[in-house]
Amino acid sequence: MFWPMFAVAMGFLGLAVLGVLAVRVFVEARRLGRQVADSAQRINRAAEDLERSAVSAVQAVDAL
To answer: How many other CB atoms are there within 10 angstroms of residue 39's CB atom?
Structure first.
């Protein structure tokens, strides 16, 4: 009777470990998603700044 109960306990423990790992992966994936979104916003801001700088540079060249 010991071995079947031991096997059930080990199975439950394995499922518990997998559950904990799944939660950790989910949390890290959400954090990575937020970082990607923040990086995309910064890249968009930098692109807009570059575009404004290019327009002012063209206007400065045209003024010459």
So the answer is: 10
- Is 44 a domain residue? yes
Does 58 reside within a domain?
A: yes
Any domain includes 38: yes
Total domain count, the chain: 1
> Is pLDDT above 80 for 64?
no
Specify the pTM: 0.67
Q: DSSP 3-state assignment of 30? A: helix
Per-residue model confidence as pLDDT tens digits over 6-32? 999 999 999 999 999 999 999 999 999
**CA–CA dist 39, 41 (Å, integer):** 5
Confidence (pLDDT) at 58 = 87
